[in-house]
C-alpha cells in the first residue's frame, strides 16, 4: 500500500498544491507514516543543508533534497513537521507545516 502512495506522491511532487490535497486525504489512514514529528525549522534546515553539501561532495544525491532545503530556508514556518513513509522499494520524507497545509518538499530515496 505504501509503495502506491509513494509512487503517487512522486508523480505529483512538483505540484505542491496537489501534494497538500493528497496528504490531507491519506493522513488519517492507519500505518501510513512510520514516524511523524515536529522540529524547529532552523534545526531541520541545518541538518538537511549539511546533507545537501555532503551529497554534492560525495556525488550521492537524494531526489528532492535541494528543492526542500531551498524552500525550508525561505519558509516563514517556525516548526516543520517531518513525516516518513516507508515502502518496500522506495521511501520518502515529507516536510510540511504541522497541519499539512504547507508542503515544503519531499525527499525520495531507494531502499
Structure write-up:
The protein starts with a helix and ends with a strand. It is 45% helix and 25% strand. The chain has one domain (2-110). It has helices at 2-12, 16-26, 41-58, 65-74; strands at residues 35-40, 79-85, 90-96, 103-110. Strand 3 and strand 4 form a beta hairpin. The model has no long low-confidence stretch (mean pLDDT 93). With 111 residues, the chain is α+β, with helices and mostly antiparallel strands. The chain is built from 4 helices and 4 strands; from the N terminus they run H-H-E-H-H-E-E-E.
* Helix and strand sequence: HHEHHEEE
Total beta-strand segments: 4
Give the rounded overall mean pLDDT. 93
Which oligomeric state applies?
single chain
Cα distance spanning the termini: 16 Å
**Strand order in the largest sheet:** 1-2-3-4
- Give the structural class: alpha+beta
Number of domains: 1
Strand proportion: 25-35%
User: Segments where pLDDT lies below 50 for 5+ residues?
Assistant: none
* Major sheet attributes: 4 strands, antiparallel
Amino acid at each position: 500500500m505504501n509503495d502506491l502512495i509513494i509512487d503517487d506522491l512522486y508523480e505529483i511532487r512538483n505540484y505542491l498544491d496537489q501534494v497538500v490535497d493528497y496528504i490531507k486525504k491519506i493522513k488519517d489512514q492507519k500505518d501510513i507514516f512510520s514516524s511523524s514529528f515536529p522540529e524547529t525549522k532552523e534545526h531541520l534546515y541545518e541538518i538537511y543543508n549539511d546533507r545537501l553539501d555532503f551529497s554534492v561532495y560525495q556525488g550521492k544525491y537524494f531526489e528532492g533534497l535541494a528543492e526542500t532545503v531551498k524552500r525550508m530556508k525561505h519558509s516563514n514556518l517556525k516548526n516543520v513537521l517531518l513525516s516518513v513513509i516507508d515502502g518496500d522499494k522506495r521511501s520518502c520524507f515529507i516536510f510540511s507545516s504541522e497541519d499539512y497545509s504547507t508542503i515544503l518538499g519531499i525527499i525520495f530515496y531507494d531502499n
